[in-house]
Design goal:
heterodimer; A: alpha+beta; four-stranded antiparallel sheet; two-stranded antiparallel sheet; 12 helices; 68% helix; globular; B: alpha/beta; five-stranded mixed sheet
Chain lengths: 379, 336
């Protein structure tokens, strides 16, 4: 019986291996017969095209395809990371608003969820992009809602702090205060276990993490030199800018995903039986502590797994960037494929990258999910 | 996005499956009864559906000429609108038989992509269009400008080269669909729109609210010979598509048009007799009907007729695309 099972598995393995070999060899043969170049050698060649946005990594047309793709990857990460954070915040607020006893608030939240969830994301992106580029004035008539902040159809230009040696020290202070906050919280927990005295870990931590960097900043004489954007020729130079493409894509992804997250949060909170909070109250726990110690841990168990798939969705949906001209990974890989003609390699790179990102997010969220799962209730 | 991935996936699947050209495309086309032609998603004068949904343009005429040669019926064409990024994959994977989509002939494309260019049906060059109110008169004044461009084009590469050579910088806004990139330019997202001059003229004529508000700068920064493309390694089909294009140019040179070709059927001129298939067996050698050239001229017209019907109304000048006898570059190898 066991031998037969092993034989069956071996046969399956052989079949899969044969199919893979057949596809690979046939592809290679056909590519060769048609004189279509293959292999990843093109990655080192000069790309020859410019990229509109290349933050954190300097890029010019003289750089290689590999570097161009890396710029695309950074752009994808930038949108995905900011999108995930904002969508979580907005989604949580809207989800809780739907549960509110305030009639208007809960109806508004319901309207938001229904509207955003039921219109295709691509349409929303086109809409947002059109709103931004068609309605805002040109650079020469740019709006100035705050001094030094310019709003035009080239995006938003804003002043940034000029680089100063103290910034590195402030980051170091932030790291140090984070460690201190963690140590204080641990000490507080142990003392509470020993004596029953509660410790305001959250307030102490926040005070440490804000106060220490601020103290360093003030000690250095509070250097507040700003690099202000100024109209120079065709466009604003100096300061920071966010492009309309980035704004439309991040905004669209965030609002769309937040609608789904809102529903997940609402479901999570509603899944906790009312008896739980009643029991907590009868033990004399305050409303806030009931939420933090009883409701939230149980709600999170329901929320986290579907939340993970929303994060994955948001990251994968960022490939719609190509429609509105944001230079994300897919957009740049597509251009590369088109210039080099190596579609198979290009698609392989895109697939490998998205697979890696998605599996990483999954792994991280699974780890978090295990942490918050009910102890002893694991299957 | 999905469509492109689908095409790419098809390409991967097609390349991975059995040998595609055990059979010549010519036989495949004959047996299915129509030519599948890849065209632009909508570029006035080159390929664009008219108000009744009929595709019109000189690229469309290149496809119709092939159908006229193969079937004696120029209407036996089916069109696949393709973006710049989709076009080569679509041809490589066999989704289209001919690609006539204002595509520039370059050595990289001819050698690295597994394609063959059959000739040139429009000699073009890349230019810049700017709103008049910017007051720009030369491309040399474009330092720091934001420029709208389509990805996957030679345009994108020439643009980067030109600015590098002149030590200027620019910000590209790269949008895949022609409609969207043009909308972005007209909305003022970019200071400049760049593509082949023919494309600029076409877009300005068909999309600008007031044609006079947009100027095309005098600099032409590249050579862009545009022409139909077929897959590498299928010589019979290559010949049919190549000579279908040449026949339209040769007809103009010989003074044959859709209006007078019937009278010339009984011409005593031996060159005309050969061309219309009254004598000789050129068509048979090509693998099509002996009256192939007659059918092309009768149903599609000669090159000049096609140009005048599609491009002249948009404000195009024949320029380089005049016959060589009139100082242009259009030159047909002898049909004999």
């Amino acid at each position: 019986m066991r031998a037969r099972a092993i034989a069956a598995q071996l046969a399956l393995l052989a079949a899969v291996a044969f199919v893979v070999w057949y596809l690979a060899s046939n592809t290679a043969q056909n590519l060769d017969a048609r004189k279509i170049a293959s292999g990843f050698g093109f990655l080192a060649r000069e790309a020859g095209f410019e990229i509109g946005e290349a933050p954190f990594l300097a890029y010019s047309a003289a750089d290689s395809y590999a570097r161009a793709i890396l710029v695309g990857l950074i752009n994808t990460f930038r949108v995905a990371l900011i999108g995930v954070v904002l969508a979580t915040v907005i989604g949580t607020v809207v989800g809780l608003a739907r549960l509110s006893h305030n009639w208007l608030l809960s109806r508004l939240a319901t309207g938001y969820v229904e509207l955003l969830r039921n219109v295709p994301l691509l349409v929303q992106l086109f809409f947002l992009y059109a709103v931004i580029t068609e309605n805002l004035p040109g650079t020469r008539q740019a709006l100035e809602p705050l001094p030094g902040v310019f709003l035009s159809n080239r995006g938003i230009a804003f002043p940034v702090l000029e680089a100063h040696a103290v910034h590195a020290w402030m980051v170091a202070a932030l790291a140090a205060s984070a460690v201190l906050a963690w140590l204080a919280a641990r000490w507080g927990r142990r003392r509470q276990a020993r004596t029953g005295q509660p410790f305001p870990a959250l307030i102490v931590g926040a005070a440490l993490m804000l106060g220490l960097p601020l103290a360093v900043f003030l000690a250095a004489g509070a250097p507040l030199a700003l690099a202000r954007p100024a109209l120079q020729g065709f466009n604003f130079a100096g300061g920071g800018t966010l492009s309309p493409e980035f704004a439309a894509l991040t905004g669209g992804l965030t609002l769309y995903t937040a609608a789904f997250i809102a529903e997940i949060v609402r479901a999570g909170v509603q899944s906790v039986d009312r008896g739980q909070s009643e029991a907590a109250y009868s033990l004399g726990l305050s409303r806030r502590r009931t939420t933090r110690l009883v409701i939230l841990p149980q709600a999170l168990r329901v929320i986290v797994p579907p939340l993970t798939s929303q994060y994955l969705n948001l990251t994968k949906n960022s490939s719609l960037a190509v429609a509105i001209g944001y230079p994300d990974l897919v957009s740049i890989a597509n251009t590369t494929m088109n210039q080099t003609g190596q579609a198979i390699e290009g698609i392989a790179i895109i697939m490998a990258v998205y697979l890696t990102i998605s599996l990483s997010i999954s792994a991280l969220m699974n780890w978090y999910n295990k942490r918050i799962a009910l102890k002893g209730a694991r299957r | 996005m999905k469509a492109r991935l689908a095409i790419a996936a098809c390409a991967v699947a097609a390349l991975a499956s059995g040998n595609l050209y055990a059979q010549s495309t010519l036989d495949a086309v004959k047996s299915k009864g129509y030519v599948q032609c890849g065209v632009n998603t909508g570029l006035a004068g080159f390929s664009q559906p008219d108000s009744r949904g009929v595709w019109k343009g000189i690229d469309v005429d290149a496809c119709r000429a092939v159908a006229a040669a193969v079937f004696g019926d120029a209407s036996k064409v089916r069109y696949t609108p393709l973006t710049a990024q989709q076009r080569f994959t679509a041809l490589q994977s066999g989704e289209v038989d001919v690609l006539a989509r204002n595509t520039t002939w370059t050595i990289t494309r001819d050698t690295g992509l597994g394609l063959n260019f059959v000739g040139t049906n429009y000699y073009d060059g890349q230019g810049f269009m700017v709103p008049k109110k910017l007051g720009v008169t030369s491309a040399k004044q474009l330092n720091g400008a934001t420029i709208c461009v389509q990805p996957g084009t030679t345009t994108e590469l020439n643009l980067a080269d030109y600015f590098r050579a002149n030590r200027m910088s620019f910000k590209p806004v790269v949008i895949e669909k022609l409609e969207e990139v043009v909308s972005a330019y007209f909305a003022g997202r970019c200071d400049v729109y760049t593509t082949d001059v023919s494309g600029l003229v076409s877009v300005r004529a068909s999309r600008a609210q007031n044609v006079a508000d947009h100027v095309i700068l005098p600099e032409v920064i590249s050579k862009e010979p545009l022409g139909p493309v077929v897959r590498h390694g299928d010589d019979r089909w290559f010949d049919v598509v190549k000579w279908s294009l040449i026949a339209t140019i040769e007809a103009e040179e010989m003074g044959l048009s859709s209006k007078n070709i019937d009278q010339n059927l009984s011409s005593t001129n031996p060159a005309v007799q050969r061309f219309v298939g009254a004598t000789g067996d050129i068509g048979k050698q090509l693998g099509v009907d002996n009256r192939w050239a007659y059918n092309i001229v009768k149903q599609v017209g000669n090159y000049g007729e096609s140009f005048e019907a599609n491009l002249t109304p948009l404000g195009f000048d024949r320029g380089l695309n005049r016959l060589w006898t009139q100082g242009g570059l259009m030159y047909a190898p002898p049909v004999r």
